[in-house]
Design a protein that fits this description.
By secondary structure, the chain is α/β, with parallel strands linked by helices. The protein has nine helices and five strands, in the order αβαβαβαβαβαααα. Helices cover 37% and strands 9% of the residues. The chain starts with 7 loop residues before the first helix and ends with a helix.
């Protein structure tokens, strides 16, 4: 640990995914690769986590070579691992469901050392104390990553066109107004749009949905994508 309090361990913890994890191929192969490059760290991450502001303090303090590549959606990053890049990346930064539901079951990541990382949970907010569900494997036995960030998921408006008051009052129903067709953009990551479209459809995304809601979702999705 250096004068700024940044250690390799802390950096890896902070730069991990919401349920962060180390990417691996076969255990032996990756451990051998890491041993040969102890001063190198390769990160596959969301845009922003590859910025000099984030990485340069660690590079300087640890005299390390940190290489990062950014993408703007989770499925593309995971497909890169599936295509064989588990022997390229040491750390992957994606959103929490992917670790326990996809990457770990498919053998794309390995668990973190609980003895090393568990103490960090003591410093977290009550909702994220050990054992935090989304940081663990489905059976609750393995630690797949560290809580990194959380917050609201919302839309952004150009206040020269849509006032803050209107955005807050009308909310997701803005997308149901035919007058707004052709005046908005949507994320290129399909899975993130599921949340939005549920809200535009007028129902809670976080529940099991009825056949009528599924039909409404399909109708809304078609309208939203056509109007984008």
């Amino acid at each position: 640990m250096g004068p700024n309090g940044i250690s390799r361990r802390k950096f890896m913890q902070q730069s991990a995914m919401f349920a962060g994890a180390l990417a691996v191929g076969t255990g032996g192969t990756l451990r051998g690769a890491q041993a040969a490059r102890e001063k190198e760290l390769n990160i596959l991450c969301w845009e922003g986590y590859n910025s000099a502001q984030v990485l340069d303090p660690f590079r300087t303090e640890m005299d390390a070579t940190v290489k990062a590549e950014s993408l703007t959606n989770d499925p593309t990053m995971i497909n890169r691992l599936r295509a064989g890049e588990t022997n390229v990346w040491d750390l992957i930064n994606v959103n929490n469901p992917w670790a326990r539901k996809v990457m770990y079951p498919e053998g794309l990541i390995k668990p973190l050392d609980q003895e090393v990382f568990k103490p960090y949970f003591d410093k977290m907010m009550p909702a994220f104390k050990w054992p935090y569900k989304w940081a663990m494997s489905d059976d609750g036995k393995e630690l797949l990553g560290m809580t990194q960030r959380f917050g609201p998921y919302s839309f952004v408006v150009n206040t020269d066109k849509v006032s803050r008051a209107t955005a807050e009052d009308v909310g997701w129903d803005l997308w149901n107004d035919p007058a707004n067709a052709g005046k908005y953009g949507i994320l290129e990551s399909d899975d993130w749009n599921v949340f939005d479209i549920c809200l535009i459809s007028g129902f809670d995304p976080f529940k099991e949905h009825s056949d009528d809601e599924v039909a409404k979702f399909a109708e809304t999705a078609s309208k939203v994508f056509k109007g984008a």
